[in-house]
Design goal:
There is one protein chain. With 161 residues, the protein is an alpha/beta fold. The chain has a single domain, classed as Creatinase/prolidase N-terminal domain (Creatine Amidinohydrolase, Chain A, domain 1). It has 7 helices and 6 strands. It has a 6-stranded mixed β-sheet, with helices on one face. A hairpin with a 4-residue loop joins strand 2 and strand 3. Helix 1 packs across helix 6. It is elongated.
């Protein structure tokens, strides 16, 4: 089941690309589950490569078929050589969620010459804009949370151990 359609995901990517462009970043490499889900609608182990003036491709290491079912974006099997050819010029990773080992994996295994810039701020700014769909889901989640808390109050009383 997809919570968000192609149009919603494409709008998110366009906002992200605009912020990247302002930071003079040409390509972003995203690997964290929240970022993958936010932009692809899937959380399969993989890498999302976002080119500001080019393609956006979700490279999946595991559960490729499931990723194809879940994401309306272009999905390909993980291919380091292909990822390497997509990363041109100033590239970036969100340094607030990228581990040192993961950063050096991409830098050394893919033979990337330049150091990555940090795209954490671009991601954060992108995620601050909520569509009507997102806002409705957040309101619904809030109502569910309130009902859970109200029910939890009935389970506890003075003297319970």
């Amino acid at each position: 089941m997809r919570l968000f359609g192609v149009e919603e995901l494409e709008n998110r990517l366009e906002r992200f690309k605009n912020y990247l462009s302002k930071l003079e970043i040409e390509t972003a490499v995203l690997t964290s589950n929240p970022d993958l889900y936010y932009f692809t609608g899937s959380v399969q182990k993989g890498t999302l490569v976002v080119q500001v003036n080019g393609e956006t491709i979700y490279f999946v290491r595991k559960n490729y078929d499931r990723a194809c079912r879940e994401s309306p974006l272009e999905v390909r099997k993980w291919n380091g050589d292909e990822i390497k050819t997509m990363i041109k010029g100033h590239w970036s990773m969100p340094m607030d969620v990228t581990t040192v080992s993961e950063y050096f994996f991409y830098k050394s295994k893919l033979s990337l010459n330049a150091d990555a810039k940090d795209c954490s701020q671009a991601l954060a700014l992108t995620k601050t804009v909520k569509s009507e769909e997102e806002a409705a889901l957040m309101k619904r989640a809030g109502k569910i949370n309130i009902s859970i808390m109200e029910y939890a109050k009935t389970l506890y009383y003075p003297g319970i151990t």
